[in-house]
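For reproducibility, we list the full input for the adenosine monophosphate complex.
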Amino acid sequence: MKDPKRVSACLFCRIVARELPADIVYEDAEVLSFRDIRPKYPVHLLVVPKVHLAGVADLQVEHEPLAGKLLRIGAHLARREGIANSGFRLLTNEGPDAGQVVHHLHLHVLGGESLRGL
Ligand code: AMP
Ligand code: ZN
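The corresponding predicted structure, in tokenized form, follows.
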């Protein structure tokens, strides 16, 4: 999304821009990860691209390396959080039926206890 007004209103763009605080656990040139403000599990991280994409449905062919990187970083952070062996879940919500509330693509990294089945 190129509209600067929309981007400046986006919660996660504002976290990326350091306009809003977050408990940041990882950063590189393309990706930021921070702890979910209302964790549903003992480990609940969000992994977001720095570029604004509204959700997984906005991914284009040129985003394939970025999409793969989100998964790799999610798994890397799960290892760092000590939940790689016990198990973890990476998921993204798209649209109202999935309960998406923040319209900036993000991967949830969930674990630290037995996760309820889907
Ligand atoms: P989703 O339903 O996939 O859109 O999930 C959005 C997630 O963002 C929820 O788990 C929220 O708890 C989380 N969230 C909302 N605002 C913040 C914030 N300021 N910092 C960290 N996480 C947030
Ligand atoms: Zn955004």
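The chain has a mean pLDDT of 95. The longest helix spans residues 64-80. Both points were considered when choosing residues for closer inspection.
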